Structures are given as C-alpha cells and as structure tokens.
Amino acid sequence: MKRKLVKGILVMLLFNMILIASGCWDRYEITDVAQVWIIGVDRLPEMEGYILTLQIISPSEASNTITGGGGGTDPMEKAVWVTTAQCKSISDAVGVVSQLSPRKLAFDYPRAIVFGEEIAREGIGPILDYFQREHRFRRTMRIFIAKGTTAQAVLEANPRLEKSPSVAMINILRWSEKAGNTLSVNLGDFLLALNREGMDPVANMVVIHDNSEVVEAERIIPKNKQPEERGLGIKRDSLELRMAGNAIFADDKLVDWLDVEETKGYMLAVNKAKPGIIDTEHEEVNKKMAFQNLSSKSKIIPQISDDGRLSFLIKAKIRANLVEQMDNLRLDKEEVQKSLEDLLAATVKDAVRKAVEKAQKNKTDIFGMGVELYRTYPKLWKEKYKDNWSEIFARVPVEIQVEAKINNIGVILETLERKGLVE
C-alpha cells in the first residue's frame, strides 16, 4: 500500500514537470510582434471596397507602454507606423497589411476603431460583423467617428505631448468624459444598442483641428522678437485631435452630431452624467455663473393616458456646487439660493430638451425610450409600437422635470466687486 502511494506521488510529480517544461506552445515575445493600436476604416472611392488603415506601435514602444517601463527606446525607430490597404473586404485588407509587415501583426491591444464620416453615413453594420466574429478584437475598444474627415487622416495626425494618435485619443476621451463633455462608448456598448429593439446607438466623435497658427499668448509679447525668442509664443504646426460631443445613429447609419450642451443633456437623461461644469447665465444681471455637478439621477417613464395616448416623462435630480459667479448676488440669502437652484434646474432642463429635439428630428431613439416602453407595457409594445417605432418616437410628447439642489456655495458670500475691491 505504501509502495503504491509513493509510486502515485512520483507519477504526479513527473506529470507536473512535463507540464512546466512544455511552456506555452503559441507564446511570443512582445518585441517580436507588431502591436496594432488603432484600426481605421474608410470607403474606397468609386468602387465597392474599403480602405483599411492600421496604426502599429513600434516593438520597443509597445514594451515600454504595456509593461510600464521607460527608456531604452531606439532613437532611430519611429514610435508608430501607419499603413493602409485597399480591398473588397476587411478580412482581405488585414491579410494584405500582414504581408507588408516584417513582424507578425498582433491585435491583442487595439484601443479604438475609427470610421470616416462618409462610410459611417452609409452604414457600418456590415463592417462590425467582422469585428464581432473575429475573436482577436475586444469589445472594450472605443468606437470613433471622424467628423468631416477620414479615418486615415485621423490616424496620420501628429498630436503634441503624445507619440501617437492612439494614446492621444484615449487620453483626450478620458479627460473629456471626466469633464462631462462626452460619453465614452466602446464596441460592446455600440453593439448592444444596435441589436436592441427600441434603442439606437451613439459613438465617440473625433475632429481634426489645424493648429498651424501661433498661439494667442504671443500677442502680448513684443512683436519685434521672433516667436521662439518670446517664450510664450510657440508655433503649432501639427494637426490636433479634439473631441467634445457624440455621434448619433439611426440603426447602423450616422445621422447627426450632439454638441457639448446636448451631450450633457443626453447623459443626464440616460443616467450617465459625469461631474462636469454646467455654465449658465443669471437673467436679472445678465452675467455668467458656473456649477459643478456632484451627482445626478434620472428616470425615463412611459405614460399611457386614459384615451390611449403615449407620452414620456424624464425625471431628473441634480446636486451641484456653485463654483463661480460674476455678479453681485448675496449668496447668504435664502431666496437667492432658491433662485440659483431654479436657474440650475432650468439650464439642465433646456439641455435635455435640446438633446430630445435633436434625437426626434433625426428619428433616432438614443435614449432607449422604446426599451422602457417595452419593459412597462410589453404587450402594447409588440402590438402597437414595435414595427413603426422610429416614426412614433419622432412625434411622441416628452415632458422634462428637473429638481436641483445647491449643496455648497463656497467659502465666501460676496464677490470682490461687491466688496469694492474690483471696479
């Protein structure tokens, strides 16, 4: 019995040694492959097909970025390589680019997919079919629409501070979302909305801005000196990437854009608002005020009247701090604080209203009101509204109610102007 136990232990140890010695049969070193970080898709002009643009990060940069290391980069090696291929299908284009690369293309860490505006307006459903089926592409990739330009132009931009557009795009998106100016959308979010009845998707928007002019700060520096001698005067000779707002779709087709104010209203209505700044203007003194959104909650409620008419109610609550005022209001007065809360509520309500109007104008239910209608009245949805929802949504009455609460007005009650310190 004891001999059998020893023999069994020896067999297990030998088996474990074989497993450890074999390693991973399909492993590869990160410096042996070319990591694809952004994928761009455009329509091939005058024929059926696509222009696929890939931004590939150099092996040394990929190693430093993914492992968190620094230094050791070859100064002769470019940070990124942008290459394109023209084919009738996305899979063919990937194969063509693979033949041009001296290293194996790896799609383990792609950060974003960018679509040109032209192909986005035609419809990106057939293209997304490939990205859904191919196991190498993650649902966490951000999805961008290049407003007024092509995906190739975005990938070839030369942003400052970052070595590649991929890093710049993700970082700009992150900070823009934290400021409440855009809603970050990944491939999974887009596909979920696209495949859901009673809902249309939104996407991130990216714009190329030509910064070939000299910065405004130079105008206060003596003109008899060259820009590089003035200190503050730095000539911007690069194409910058900017994003503020979102792209809205009807099914898989791009139909319009939400500006920053409309995006803030949209995010608040769908309960995805971020703690950003809300600017407004006090009617009595015609001066600007700014609030910091601390938290918000919202709910979309479908309503059926006694005579069978459909309407929706958007109820929202917002809690904010006053962070800036440019008038002489006495903030310690209760009636003043109440007027500020009313002002904030009216401002938020107006932003939500503009987002709703933009969506109804384009017959695209980005709010998911059809989803809420199905949840509340599933039988009625299937029998009366499902088949013609986009047309019904465009005409349905929407009431907006906003309750605002000013949490903090800061550490001072009077402005410097009221104290006589500023003329």
Number of domains: 2
Rg result: 27 Å
Terminus-to-terminus distance = 100 Å
Structure annotation, total helices: 13
Strand content: 25-35%
> Globular, elongated, flat, extended or rod-shaped: what is the shape?
globular
Helix and strand composition category? alpha/beta
How many beta-strand elements?
A: 14
Contiguous uncertain segments of 5+ residues: 66-77, 213-237, 418-423
| Mean pLDDT metric | 78
How is the biggest beta sheet arranged? 10 strands, mixed
Q: Give the helix proportion (percent range).
A: 25-40%
Written as H for each helix and E for each strand, in order along the chain, the element string is: HEEHEHEEHHEHHHEEEEHEEEHHHHE
What does this structure look like?
The chain is α/β, with parallel strands linked by helices. It has 2 domains: 31-258, no CATH class; 260-423, Nutrient germinant receptor protein C, domain 3 (GMP Synthetase, Chain A, domain 3, 2-Layer Sandwich). 34% of the residues lie in helices and 27% in strands. Residues 66-77, 213-237 and 418-423 have low confidence and may be disordered.
